[in-house]
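Task: sequence in, structure out. Protein: SET domain-containing protein.
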Amino acid sequence: MHKLATPMCDNELGREILKQLGALQLNGMVPPNGMERSLVKASMSMQKPALMEVHMRFMKQFSELERDWQLMKDPLAAKPETRPAKKKAVSLEGMRSIRLLELKVGKRYHGRVLHATLCADAFFLNLIQTMVEDEDGYAARVMIEDSLAGLTSWAKVQGRYPNGAKIAIKAPLLSELPDDSVALYVNTEDDLIVQSDFPAVSVEVNVWAKLDAAALRAEGNRLFAKQDWTGSIELYTKCIQKCLDSVRRKPTSNKHKKKGASENGTTSNGKVVDETVMLAFSNRAAAWMKSCHYERALKDAHEALTLEPHHLKSIYRKGCALHGMQQYELACKCFELALEQSPEKDIKLALQKSQTCDMQSRRGVYELSKYLVGGFEGPLPEFSDYVGPVEIRSSEGRCRRGLFVTKDVEVGELLLVSNALVVVHNGNHATGKNTSPSGRSNALLRDELLCSLSNLLLKSPKWLEQACSLADCECHGNTKVPPLELFRPNSKWTAGKEDVVLPRLKGVLLQNALDESGSCTRVLQAGRGSQFLGLWPLPSFINHSCTANAVRLHVGDALFLHASRHLEAGEEVTLAYVNTLLPKQMRHELLEKDHWEFTCSCSRCDLESNLSAPLKQVTKRFQSLWGWKEAVTPGQVECFKMAKLALRLEHLLKQKGLYLYERQLVRASFFVAYWVGYLNIDRLGTLCVKLPLPDMLIDAVTAVAPSDTMTSFFAGYWLKRLEEQGASRPVIHDAQQRAIHIYRCVYGNQTSGLLKQLLEAHEANTIL
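Result:
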């Protein structure tokens, strides 16, 4: 774990996140979309338009996080204006001028000075970043080591380094950054002298100072209507401050003051002041919710209700904040109280939604039939998180954590439902139907996910602790078992007494974020755009097994986890991290290629290890044919060789006298060879009788990988062939039940009628 020197308050957390993103940015981990190569090219040629575009896109990418960080500071705390520090008079006599084009990368020019103009707004992550332009029109990015970075807002940094100011950089150094671009590096603020600055006078501050509390609230409402949540929060805060200051202020003389009047236009009896501040708290609660700061929204709604216990909108907003915090039971009580005052449609809908989520979170009952039968089309439903009969605990004899069932579980039983902590989509996600990717690469999706997670951690201490509880691929040793209340809705979770240690965010994402196929973010192919990437906290504790006993199903941004076979109390829940319809050697190579730092030792791997000698030649031959199109194309020589490989494997299994279940596990490893064997039945002639019946192969792959598309496809394919060949009704019924069993593993304990509908839709190529 990456530990900080001091405990983190909200302000320090924001600064640490900005520093992490700054380090990743300089290493090329979070470049603006599509600008990786152009950044390097523009920085070397010192082209101002291209560099300006990159600079502005960086600012836009991180601006939301910076504004959220500023909002996390105590809004009612005193905020004295800090003026830019005065620069010491520094003599530049005797120092010769130098231009940008004369600078060579990596060389510091002592005794020289670069005269230029700041041509962009400054911002900071771990370093202050801005741009300069010399008199020849060439430009360069500037990285400044300044004590001001991380201690104040971007606005204050821009006040110290104002756009348009004439500057001088002593002993300039053009440095190569880890992302292969170049920039001027200033390692001390004293080496950059602002010779003439033209900071924009903050007219905004003077305007707000002249307005009374009611006018400030009205301006906040105007910004709220424009969906400027941050701006409206700032004005509501100023309104609250002015109201509270007017209550604390003691008038110096009442001789000439009119009765009932005060300096800011409110009445001295406090009634108007109370109403104004109450409405400001209530409105700010609504703005906090729009920004997903549900804890702060709840606090403001509570403040408003303290002043006016029967204020309808405050009661409603309190309920909405509780719903966002997954405190559905308390949210229902708020909406019921609001309905007693006014039977508005919005309140009824909010109550119905909270009641549904409350039932889901307690009983694990979800209505998916319309969504599933509709082929995952239509508006995305909202689902509550659900923690079923599972617990997190350390695995015996292993330095890792895992998810275990607390009671006996049957096939199709729902184990948990988890909404994504953060998720980014590659294309249209207004519906749950998979659409064609928009063309963004996995690298860009990963970077967007990183920025989204960074911004999210400032919004809720619960989300922060969930992220910090996950393993970090770059920082080992996180073996602490978090309480389930951290993930369970309606729980009375409170922030831990111990200081939360912020892990490296990149490590958390690379280790735990997944795409739609279950591939870990760190191993995704750079050129292939996934449908989505997301981070699901509780499922991240599930370990790998080549005989996985659970199946995940994505419905919108929610992940449903069902048991794929009978589980006994205390048994560990597992998923497959790689394709398990392959021999052991190939599975382990995939795990090693994906940089998983473990060697699978499940019962299936142990079995194949014991059979390594007799299976050696078969595996070697299978690997040589694997991946060739001709190996699965009937009529090709390679295809017939693959079919004969299945016959050879059956002979070996018969010689070893294995149990049926053991033979099934081995058959699943060479599933493709058997399928190709069925495609070459005519060429095999009488030898085809040595192949196991297709229903046995279906059972084999179902035991190993029921969620694999090959499994459901093969079951549906064989059922269709039996129907076309006019097989007897019992045979067709038996094949149908096997296919339905696969769908029960994936979709859970739905009704037999619904599972049959899904199977028919699959046969019609409308699903999967």
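The chain has four domains: 12-83+90-199, 211-363, 383-580, 586-765.
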